[in-house]
Amino acid sequence: MSEPQEIVETRGDDRVDLITSDANGDGKIDVWVSDTDGDGKPDLFQFDTDGDGKVDVTMVDLDEDGTPDTIVDGDGGLPPATV
Question: I want to staple 8 with a disulfide (CB 3.0 to 4.6 A). Which of 17, 36, 67, 76 is the partner?
């Protein structure tokens, strides 16, 4: 059984993936850049760093200034809809 994920706060409760990318060319999405409050600006960034198709690192930029306010291991309780 895996350990519970740390839940991170985002700017809103919605999620719109602005960018999804296969950065390493293995055919699986491994980068997600999302807007959670509907303003069209990214505030949630997630990365699959080991190629297993699951989020390994989540960063949240609450004030959208380009510097992450929160960085956690795992999906932060916000798994992407597309993997």
Answer: 76
